[in-house]
């Protein structure tokens, strides 16, 4: 069959291909269509067809189901050609948000039975053909249940850690008992410290005097021995160790049987200081005998606590503030140093949870510029837990007395390693200020601050602080496991402040070797009592798991 169009575009003839007569001849009404119009039409079609092709390809690729007919393709292309987009996906998301808002505003029914896993939830939804709202409600109930369980677990962990940090490991307890027994039966353990010919050195200001207040024999040994091992002139070191009455015999026996010559060690109990009377220390007696204080530090730490509105970090801080050590006389003794050592001009006070890694003799050459306390400031570091502390972190500024006298943005400083100019101190009223604020806090039922002995010291030493370089004193090894090891190696003093002490099982394993290597080095030098440390202090009926562990192999890693 052939199709013939006349040149004038006025007739159309259809004929067969076998030469027969025309089957049909159609005459078209006369219309004036110019060649220019036809050319423009063809040009437009040539321009549009590629876009139609591309759009068709995109629709085909985007579609989940292939279109098998022009009708399907038309339904999909039509809205796009008209500038319309299928928004069914957006409507679905909006509907989903609407359902979530509805579920969030509703109360979860009591007694609702929740699946134990997401797979069980999906299976339950399929079997019961629940709608989207029911699914969202069940999912919310499951998430809230898991959040409660996680919070309860975290608070339980913090409580257990608090009890572990406040307790005495059996190994340390047995060490104290064994040394006390040695003190009563061994004359060498009772020998005078220091020997009579060295007594004048105890008040000689040409020596470097360290003061350590502790009832932990093992910790005291680490502090003293690390100072001696790190010193370039150990013969200039004098240690004044102050302990309580129950620990005095064991502490004395330890240093009598394990001398640290050429350094000099003096061990005294608080009962041996004539100045420490109730008249001179009235607040401490009040703190120890005050019923509310005793209950605060030794009572039920969960009673009256609203855990639903408390973060784990805040709860941990409150538990730390309730450590019984904060009502111990040993913890307050540093405020009485000028009276306890009336003949000394300058001392370095050390906490018992530190390790000395560098010669500290340059500390005596630091000019404090008329200040009393040379300390590392704790407001200029990057971490939020240790080195970003201001007064607002320690005091309750909603209390009118605190708000009136203190600046919340004032920089805090650290105890642990402090240079005290005792001559300048004696000219101030620091001790009286300390007593005044302790009394005010007791009157307010501990509403002015909660955290131990540092807050009243921050007030008492206000205006008397001389900042020293932070490399002298690195803090936080008992708080954060992500301590920079290389930075810790370079620090003159590392401080295990926090609950995770290195002599406890909750101590951080990778930070413990800084502490344990001191005893291992002493063991290599010899010493009968050090064998007990390395292989464990055993009591009668003591299991191996109760013995304090020292990782000898771990020393080489530091």
From TrEMBL:
Pathway: Glycan metabolism; pectin biosynthesis. It is a single-pass type II membrane protein. One of its GO terms (molecular function) is polygalacturonate 4-alpha-galacturonosyltransferase activity. Its EC number is 2.4.1.-. SUPFAM superfamilies: Nucleotide-diphospho-sugar transferases (SSF53448). Signal peptide: none annotated. Keywords: Cell wall biogenesis/degradation, Glycosyltransferase, Golgi apparatus, Membrane, Transferase, Transmembrane, Transmembrane helix. It is found in: Golgi apparatus membrane. GO terms for cellular component: Golgi membrane. It comes from the Eukaryota. It holds the Pfam family Glyco_transf_8. PANTHER family: GALACTURONOSYLTRANSFERASE 13-RELATED, GALACTURONOSYLTRANSFERASE 4-RELATED. Belongs to the glycosyltransferase 8 family. This is Hexosyltransferase. It comes from Gossypium mustelinum.
């Amino acid at each position: 069959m052939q199709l013939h169009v006349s040149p004038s575009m006025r007739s159309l003839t259809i004929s067969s291909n076998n030469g027969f007569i025309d089957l049909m001849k159609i005459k078209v009404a006369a219309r004036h269509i110019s060649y220019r119009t036809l050319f423009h039409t063809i040009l437009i079609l040539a321009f549009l067809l590629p876009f139609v092709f591309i759009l068709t390809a995109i629709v085909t690729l985007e579609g989940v189901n292939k279109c098998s007919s022009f009708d399907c393709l038309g339904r999909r292309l039509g809205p796009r050609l008209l500038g319309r987009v299928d928004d069914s996906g957006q409507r679905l998301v909006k509907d989903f948000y609407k359902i979530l808002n509805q579920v969030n505003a509703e109360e979860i029914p009591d007694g609702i039975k929740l699946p134990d896993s997401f797979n069980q939830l999906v299976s339950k939804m399929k079997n019961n053909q629940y709608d989207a709202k029911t699914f969202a409600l069940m999912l919310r109930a499951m998430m809230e249940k898991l959040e409660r369980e996680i919070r309860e677990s975290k608070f339980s962990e913090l409580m257990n850690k608090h009890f572990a940090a406040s307790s005495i490991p059996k190994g340390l307890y047995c060490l104290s008992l064994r040394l006390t027994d040695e003190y009563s039966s061994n004359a060498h353990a009772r020998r005078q410290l220091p020997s009579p010919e060295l007594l004048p050195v105890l008040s000689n200001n040409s020596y470097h005097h360290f003061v350590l207040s502790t009832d932990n024999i093992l910790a005291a040994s680490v502090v003293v021995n690390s100072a001696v091992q790190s010193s370039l002139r150990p013969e200039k070191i004098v240690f004044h160790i102050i302990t309580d009455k129950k620990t005095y015999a064991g502490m004395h026996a330890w240093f009598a049987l394990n001398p640290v010559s050429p350094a000099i060690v003096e061990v005294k109990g608080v009962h041996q200081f004539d100045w420490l009377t109730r008249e001179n220390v009235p607040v401490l007696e009040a703190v120890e005998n005050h019923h509310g204080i005793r209950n605060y530090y030794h009572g039920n730490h969960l009673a009256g606590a609203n855990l639903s509105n408390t973060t784990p970090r805040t709860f941990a801080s409150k538990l730390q503030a309730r450590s019984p050590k904060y009502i111990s006389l040993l913890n307050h003794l540093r405020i009485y140093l000028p009276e306890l050592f009336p003949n000394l001009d300058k001392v370095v006070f050390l906490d018992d949870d530190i390790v000395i890694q560098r010669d500290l003799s340059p500390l005596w050459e630091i000019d404090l510029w008329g200040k009393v306390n040379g300390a590392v400031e704790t407001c200029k570091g990057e971490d939020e837990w240790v080195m970003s502390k201001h007064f607002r972190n320690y005091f309750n500024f909603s209390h009118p007395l605190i708000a009136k006298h203190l600046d919340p943005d004032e920089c805090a400083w650290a105890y642990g390693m402090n240079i005290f100019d005792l001559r300048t101190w004696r000219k101030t009223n620091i001790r009286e200020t300390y007593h005044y604020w302790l009394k005010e806090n007791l009157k307010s039922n501990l509403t002015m601050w909660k955290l131990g002995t540092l807050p009243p010291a921050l007030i008492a030493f206000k205006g008397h602080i001389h900042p020293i370089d932070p490399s002298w004193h690195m803090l936080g090894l008992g708080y954060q496991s992500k301590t920079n090891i290389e930075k810790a190696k370079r620090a003159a003093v590392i401080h295990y402040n926090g609950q995770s002490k290195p002599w406890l099982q909750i101590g951080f394993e990778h930070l413990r070797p800084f502490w344990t290597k001191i005893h291992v080095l002493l063991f290599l030098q010899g010493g009968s009592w050090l064998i007990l440390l390395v292989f464990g202090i055993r009591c009668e009926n003591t299991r191996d798991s109760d013995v304090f562990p020292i990782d000898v192999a771990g020393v080489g890693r530091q």
